[in-house]
Design goal:
The chain has helices spanning about 5, 15-30, 70-80, 110-115, 115-130, 145-170, 180-185, 190-195, 220-230, 280-285, 355-360, 360-375, 405-415, 425-430, 435-450, 455-460; strands at about 10-15, 30-35, 50-55, 55-60, 85-90, 95, 100-105, 210-215, 235-240, 240-250, 255-260, 265-270, 270-275, 295-305, 315, 325-330, 345-350, 390-395, 420. It is of the alpha/beta class. Among the domains are: about 5-40 and about 240-290 and about 405-460, FAD/NAD(P)-binding domain, CATH 3.50.50.60; about 105-195, protoporphyrinogen ix oxidase, domain 3. The structure holds flavin-adenine dinucleotide.
C-alpha cells in the first residue's frame, strides 16, 4: 500500500453493485473510502427484500435478477465471495399473448403448435418481402418501431414488440430510440429468427444462457455479503444517507452535502468522488438541467398458499390491457425464497413516479393484479391474503429518440469536474446488467488508483450491439 494512497479519501455515492465494487478496489489499494447510500441497505436495485408472512419468511428481489458474466475474473470473485451460498438455476421463460403461451426464445415446434395461422402466414410473407424493403442503417437516427419493423416485419412487430414495448416505456415505440432494440433483443432480424427456428448444429453458439448463478437467499445476498466484507476492511458505509447537493469550484467537487436519516445537511469532503447515483441528479446538483428521465417500476409481491404456480422463471406479459410486464415466481430461482411447501408471485409494473400506478392504494392494486392473474389462469383464491409493494424510481434510463444528445451534453458537463468519475447503470445512463455495473465500478476505482482519465471509456463500456446472453460464461 502506497503512502499516497493511504492519505487519499474517496467518496462513493451509491452502494449498489457499481459503488461496492469501486470501494473494494480502492480499499484493497489502500484508500480511505466512505460510501453514502440513501437506502437502508446496500445492493441498490440488486437488493432483496424479506417479508415475514403467516407461513414463514419470503424473499423478493426488485424484479428477479440472475448473475451472468463473460468476465472470468469477476465470476471467480463472485464464486469465492458466496462459496456454498451460490446456486445454479436454470431459466425457463414464456411469452403470454392473447391467451396463448409461446416458448421464449421461439422454437419451431412450439410456434407451429401455438401460433394462429394468421400470425404464421403474416410472418412468412414478411420474411419473403423483407429483402425488398428499405431498412434504416443508422440506429442513432431511427426509432425502435422503424428498426424492428424493418427487420422483423409488421406481423412479429405488432404481435411481440409493439404492445409490450409501449407498456414498458410508457411512450410509443415510434418515440423510443432504436438503441433499445440493440440492448435488449439478441435476435438480429427475421432471417435470424428463421435460422434459429431450424434444428441447430451442435456447435452453434448459444443465444440465451439458460443456466445462471443465483445466491441462495436472493440476489441481494451477494451485495450484503460484499458490504460486510468491505466493512471488515474498514470502508465506512453510511446508509440512510441521501446525497442532496454538491459544492463545486470551477473544476472540482469540493464537498458533498448529504442528509442522514432526514436530518440536517452535513458536508463530506473527499479527494475524489465516484458517483453511481443518477446522471440527471448529478447534473441537477451541479446546476445543469440534463432533460434525462428514468422509467420507474412498482413491484407487487404476494405469498401464495400453493407450492407452485408454474415452472417458468419469467412470464413476459405482452397484452397491453394487463398491467404488469413480467410475472415471476421467486422460488424458481431458489427454493429458499419461500417457506417450504409455499410459493409467491411478483408482478413487475412499469410506471412513472407519481402517476396513477405509482400512487395507487395497495388494496386497489391488489384487486387489479388478481384480476390480471385470473386472466392468466392463476386462481385468486390461492393468495394468502398478504401482499406488499416495492418501488424502484430509476429502473430504466428512458431511451427516447433524442436521449443520446441529452446524455452527451450531461457527460460533457460533468467531465469538467476533474475529481469526479461517474459509473454504474444510473450514473452512466445505460441499460446495463449487474456484471457490467460491477466492472464499471472497478474501472472507476482503477482510474483513480492509476491516475488516468478513463471516464469516456467507462461511459461507453460494453456498448457493443450484442446482449449479454451471447457468449456468456454462466
Ligand atoms: C427489473 C429489473 C431486473 C433486472 N434483472 C437483472 C438481471 O437479471 N441480471 C442482471 O445482471 N441485471 C439485472 N438488472 C440490472 C441491475 O439491477 C443493474 O445493472 C444494477 O443494479 C446496477 O448497479 P448500480 O450500482 O449501477 O446501480 P443501482 O443498483 O441502481 O445502485 C445505485 C445506488 O445509488 C443509491 N442512490 C441513488 N440516489 C442517491 C442519492 N441521492 N443519495 C444516496 N444514494 C443514492 C441507490 O439507493 C442505490 O443503492 C435488472 C434491473 C431491473 C430494474
Amino acid at each position: 500500500m502506497s503512502q499516497a494512497a493511504e492519505q487519499k479519501h474517496v467518496a462513493v455515492l451509491g452502494g449498489g453493485p457499481a459503488g461496492l465494487m469501486a470501494a473494494w478496489e480502492l480499499v484493497e489499494a489502500g484508500y480511505r473510502v466512505t460510501i453514502l447510500d440513501r437506502d437502508s441497505k446496500v445492493g441498490g436495485m440488486c437488493a432483496t427484500l424479506k417479508f415475514a408472512g403467516k407461513h414463514g419468511d419470503y424473499r423478493f428481489d426488485y424484479g428477479g435478477h440472475r448473475f451472468i458474466t463473460k468476465n472470468p475474473e469477476l465470476l471467480k470473485f463472485v464464486d469465492e465471495l458466496m462459496a456454498e451460498d451460490l446456486l445454479y438455476a436454470e431459466r425457463k421463460s414464456v411469452i403470454r399473448f392473447k391467451g396463448r403461451i409461446y416458448q421464449y426464445p421461439l422454437a419451431i415446434g412450439d410456434l407451429l403448435k401455438n401460433a394462429p395461422f394468421s400470425l404464421l402466414f403474416g410472418a412468412a410473407v414478411d420474411l419473403v418481402m423483407l429483402p425488398f424493403k428499405k431498412r434504416p442503417q443508422n440506429r442513432r437516427d431511427s426509432s425502435f418501431a422503424e428498426w424492428i419493423e424493418s427487420r422483423f416485419g409488421k406481423t412479429l412487430y405488432r404481435n411481440f414488440f409493439e404492445g409490450y414495448t409501449g407498456k414498458l416505456w410508457g411512450i410509443s415505440p415510434a418515440k423510443l430510440s432504436a438503441d433499445w432494440a440493440s440492448q435488449r433483443i439478441s435476435l438480429l432480424d427475421l432471417k435470424d429468427v428463421a435460422r434459429r427456428l431450424l434444428p441447430q448444429k451442435k456447435d452453434t453458439p448459444r443465444t440465451y444462457a439458460r443456466k445462471y448463478r443465483y445466491p441462495k437467499l436472493g440476489f441481494g445476498h451477494l451485495y450484503t455479503r460484499l458490504g460486510e466484507e468491505l466493512e471488515k476492511k474498514g470502508v465506512d458505509i453510511r446508509l440512510n444517507s441521501n446525497v442532496v447537493d454538491m459544492q463545486t469550484t470551477e473544476n472540482r467537487i469540493s464537498s458533498i452535502g448529504f442528509s442522514e436519516n432526514d436530518g440536517e445537511v452535513q458536508q463530506l469532503d473527499a479527494d475524489y468522488v465516484i458517483s453511481t447515483i443518477p446522471l440527471s441528479d448529478m447534473c441537477r446538483m451541479t446546476d445543469f438541467d440534463s432533460g434525462l428521465e428514468f422509467r420507474s417500476l412498482r413491484f407487487f409481491n404476494m405469498p401464495m398458499e400453493t407450492e407452485n404456480i408454474s415452472d417458468n422463471t419469467w412470464q413476459y406479459l405482452s397484452d397491453p390491457e394487463i398491467l404488469g410486464t413480467r410475472l415471476q415466481e421467486p422460488r424458481r430461482r431458489s427454493p429458499y425464497m419461500a417457506p417450504e411447501g409455499r410459493t409467491s408471485v411478483m408482478v413487475e409494473i412499469p410506471c412513472d413516479k407519481g402517476d396513477e400506478v405509482w400512487s395507487m392504494h395497495g388494496d386497489q392494486l391488489r384487486e387489479r393484479v388478481l384480476d390480471d392473474l385470473e386472466t392468466l389462469g392463476v386462481d385468486r383464491k390461492l393468495s394468502t391474503g398478504e401482499y406488499f409493494t416495492a418501488f424502484t424510481e430509476h429502473a430504466y434510463p428512458l431511451m427516447d429518440i433524442d436521449y443520446q444528445d441529452k446524455r452527451e451534453k450531461a457527460i460533457t458537463h460533468l467531465c469538467k469536474f476533474d475529481n469526479l468519475v461517474m459509473s454504474g447503470r444510473q450514473g452512466s445512463f445505460r441499460y446495463i446488467f449487474t456484471d457490467t455495473a460491477m466492472e464499471m465500478g472497478q474501472m472507476a476505482a482503477r482510474s483513480i488508483i492509476e491516475g488516468t482519465d478513463r471516464r469516456r471509456e467507462i461511459f461507453d463500456y460494453r456498448n457493443e450491439n450484442t446482449v449479454i446472453e451471447v457468449q456468456s460464461v454462466a
